[in-house]
Design goal:
The protein has one domain (9-218): 3-Layer(aba) Sandwich (Glutaredoxin), CATH 3.40.30. It has helices at 9-20, 26-40, 44-47, 70-74, 90-101, 103-108, 121-131, 144-148, 157-165, 170-173, 210-218; strands at 59-61, 67-69, 79-83, 112-117, 136-139, 152-154, 180-182, 185-189, 195-200. A five-stranded mixed β-sheet has the order 5-4-3-8-9. A two-stranded antiparallel sheet has the order 1-2. The protein is of the alpha/beta class. α1 runs antiparallel to α5 (90-101). The protein is globular, with a radius of gyration of 17 Å.
């Protein structure tokens, strides 16, 4: 089991942004900040599925070639479902590594962890190997599952151009769907598919705290 007092993920993400933001050209940074403000004002977080809702089912390809189905996982216990943008996003990678560190605590509570992104399985496989991820990483090409959870949005043209200038090649890694991404979100889903806890934020620099996820699992009603 990992330390009972791990560093807060929010502190790690903030430190990374502070250390690296000066490397982003001013014009690109302005586009990214404006898009962040517009997305925050769009009402997406209010429209997305939240606590008390029923989690839509899915059957998606995993990095190792298996198919991962939500209903099959829920038959065994609760599920922690996290949506991330892709391996090209350093904030996502930091968050996934933090979840990996807390995976023993998640599994000790009888839950499974699944990470979803719009990237193709080959990209997910590279991600799992690079960061030694041992939970399911699945591909939601076209973001159909993210749409059903109310989490997807379309990149504005100027931000898409910024990402192209960074060499992210979303056309390739997202399987021909380069402009549709999910906002960061994490759900704790009970065995009856009820969403018991949710974290949804339009800011790409923030993620759910693993300690909050563990606390949410601890608060789930006892299984019959």
């Amino acid at each position: 089991m990992s330390s009972s007092n791990p560093p807060r993920l929010s502190d790690e993400l903030a430190a990374f942004f502070a250390a690296r933001s000066h490397e982003i050209p001013a014009a690109a940074r302005e586009v990214m900040e404006r898009t962040n403000r517009d997305l925050a004002a769009s009402g997406l977080t209010e429209r997305a599925l939240d606590v008390g809702g029923t989690a839509p089912g899915f059957s998606l390809p995993a990095a190792d070639g298996r198919t991962v189905a939500l209903d099959a996982l829920l038959a065994e216990g609760p599920v922690v479902l996290t949506f991330y943008r892709g391996a090209w996003c350093p904030f996502c990678n930091i968050a996934l590594r933090a979840l990996q560190e807390q995976l023993p605590g998640i599994t000790a509570r009888g839950a499974k962890l699944v990470a979803v992104s719009p990237q193709i399985p080959d990209e997910s496989l590279s991600l799992t190997e690079k960061h030694d991820l041992t939970f399911d990483v699945v591909s939601d090409i076209g973001s159909d599952t993210a749409k059903r959870y109310g989490l997807s949005f379309e990149l504005p043209a100027d931000l898409a151009a910024v990402y192209d200038s960074f060499g992210f090649d979303l056309q390739r890694v997202n399987g021909g769907h380069p402009h549709t991404l999910p906002v960061p979100a994490t759900y704790v889903i009970d065995r009856d598919a009820t969403i018991r806890w949710a974290y949804i934020d339009t800011d790409y620099k923030t993620r759910a705290e693993p300690s909050d996820i563990l606390a949410a699992l601890d608060s789930l009603p006892a299984a019959d």
